[in-house]
Amino acid sequence: MSLIQIQNLKKQYENEGVVTPVLAGLNFQIERGEFVAIMGPSGSGKSTLMHILGFLDKLSSGKYIFDGRDVSSLTDDELAQMRSKSVGFVFQAFNLLPRTTVLENVMLPLVYAKYSESERKQKATAALESVGLAHRLEYFTNQLSGGEKQRVAIARALVNEPSVIFADEPTGNLDSKSGLQVMKILQDLNDKGNTIILVTHEQYTAAHAKRAIKLKDGEIVEDALITNRQIAAGATDLKK
Amino acid sequence: MLGVIIGVMSVIIVLSAGAGAQGMILNQVKSLGSDLIGVLPGASDEKGPPASAMGIVVTTLKDSDIRELIRSGSAHVVAGTGYVKGTDTIVWGDNQTDTSFTGVNASIVEVENAKVENGRFFTEEEERSMARVAVLGSTVAKELFGEEDPVGAQIKIKKSSFNVIGVMKTRGVSGFQNQDDQIFVPLNTAQKLLLGIDYISFARLKVDNPDNVDAAMEDARIFLRERHKIDRPEEDDFSVRSMAQGLEAITQITNALKLFLAAVAAIALVVGGVGIMNIMLAAVQERTREIGLRKAVGATNRNIIEQFLVETVMITFIGGVIGIISGIFISYIISLVVRSLGYDWDFIISIPSIVLGCVVSVGIGMLFGIVPARKAAKLNPIEALRYE
């Protein structure tokens, strides 16, 4: 069974009686272990699609079945539960808590997943080690470079071992070298079996994925495997 | 937090100051004695002031009336004195001061519970012989003599020489009168030598027991009517008043004061509340993105509201404690300052003021902490994350 099944998914916003359609009946499936790039120009609905897939937003009509569960009928609390257990997010703007240490930021999802304090520390430390930030545990997030911030965000996204990691323009605020490091980490995670859904408008970034779903005006215009895949190498030394 | 501190603190200070002021006024009245009754010339009804108190000169009350009243008028009256007053520039050598002189009987010492600091008060004997002796209030003594000892000096009142025989102990301000800014001379001397009158303007009688005040007042009325040959009470040419009546009037004033202070305290609370509200609103707005992020990583609406609840309780609790401590401290400083100015001011912190201050501040803090947090928690996580 597929991890994600989308049938005729529609999303529209209503504002003062004016209905703006954003997604116009999408159909696709994503299997476990895939690395999918959702692509499209701004306004194509790719972010909205990611928000719906990541339980941050609700669909207007159609079906979304995640791991055999019909998401469209879930309550707010059940959606919070799904966000807590099944998905992790990496945002373009990092969205780390200021005035808080790196370790505490990564421990945050575990608080809501009800892990004990010692488990939280141990899991968060392990996640930070896997993104090469073991030496930054007690730093405050505002003392980090952009690349380091995004690696903290990745550690936070993978700390509760989610079924899918969503990355929304993860390299958008980074220089090319830091961006490459981030893509390398995502590829490494995918190699270890993690499902990754990447949202981007850059062809170059999308080329790191294995499959690309291209959107335009709320419709899928192309859904194909990536032939000449980029492998982010040469950025192996994460501690720099 | 500052809002909570200021709110709690101001309530405690205002209520403490109010209690202190009321205590001070009542203490002053009580220090005059609740076992005293006053006799004034001229008729009056219970509520209005007697004519004599409005500056109309009524000459019907004589020193002999009071002396006879004390001697045979009532079993309850143990002492009493008449009063006449005048003002003059008092001269000693090159020094002079404007003050009032009061002609009284020697028994004023007993009636007013007044004490002589230095020297002695004049005697019945000196009064009868129209002796030209004077006892100075402490303020007069200081103004006229400075550091020198006035006892034995000759001063001039209305061009007559008086021998200073004593200085009174400081008594402070009572009612509207500074008790220390006057000179006591024998009643007879004041009437005949200084003022040229044969009536008194006021008399005070001391009753053996505060419980007997009403009986003594009735005795005095009957006695004076008989002596003045008055048949009907409506024709009275005198008034008898008790301090209890004075106390009632003053209690009315202090109650008004209390109401005023309650209004001030209410304003302080509102100001504190608005402060708390602003801080909480700003905090929630500032943290809407944080709320969005927390929801994105799995927090439920309940988690968010609980978090803000705990934070608000902490802030208001800490603010409340600081407010209580600083409020008590500042109230104590105020009481020290007022006492050092010579007033009889009690340092009173009432438990209700602390409870009121805390309940309202914490209540407002919670309300304005929780309501915006609830609103933010209900936002779609994406909208919250994008909040600028």
TrEMBL record, chain A:
PANTHER family: ABC TRANSPORTER ABCH.1, IMPORT ATP-BINDING PROTEIN. SUPFAM superfamilies: P-loop containing nucleoside triphosphate hydrolases. Residues 4-238 form the ABC transporter domain. The keyword Iron-sulfur does not apply. The keyword Nucleotide-binding applies. Transmembrane segments: none annotated. It comes from Candidatus Magasanikbacteria bacterium RIFOXYC2_FULL_42_28. Keywords: ATP-binding, Nucleotide-binding, Transport. This is Macrolide ABC transporter ATP-binding protein. One of its GO terms (cellular component) is membrane protein complex. InterPro entries: AAA+_ATPase, ABC_transporter-like_ATP-bd, ABC_transporter-like_CS, ABC_transpr_LolD-like, MacB-like_ATP-bd, P-loop_NTPase.
